[in-house]
Specification:
The protein is mainly beta. The protein has one domain (about 10-120): Thiol Ester Dehydrase, Chain A, CATH 3.10.129. It has one helix at about 35-50, and strands spanning about 10-20, 25, 35, 60-70, 80-90, 95-100, 105-120. Strand 5 (about 80-90) and strand 6 form a beta hairpin. The radius of gyration is 15 Å and the shape is elongated.
Length: about 120
Amino acid sequence: MSTDIRLKPGLEHRLERVVDERLITMHVGGKGVFATPAMIGLMEGASHKVVEELLAEGQTTVGYEVHVRHLAPAPPGSTVVVTSRLQEVRDNKLVFEVECRLGDRVIGSGIHKRAIVPANF
């Protein structure tokens, strides 16, 4: 499967989300805190959005590897900003640099890898 030449390193997508009840974990007590799996899910979604409109008809992306550190908490009601930047394109494999911020503070960062696959797999 060849990749589209429009998929180039440097492409980026940014999303903002309020940390609501769907994104928190309660096992820490109190009102809870932004959950690591929720942060990773937002990073994966932002990474797909980087390339979604540039994929050939009938193609989609699936995540296959995540290396992320969750560095600091975000309380319920706060707004996090997730950014994904395409770093590498090799055949049908895509490598993204991902970051999550709370204000000017990085609260999560890492690398996420996705593969371009047929949408009807």
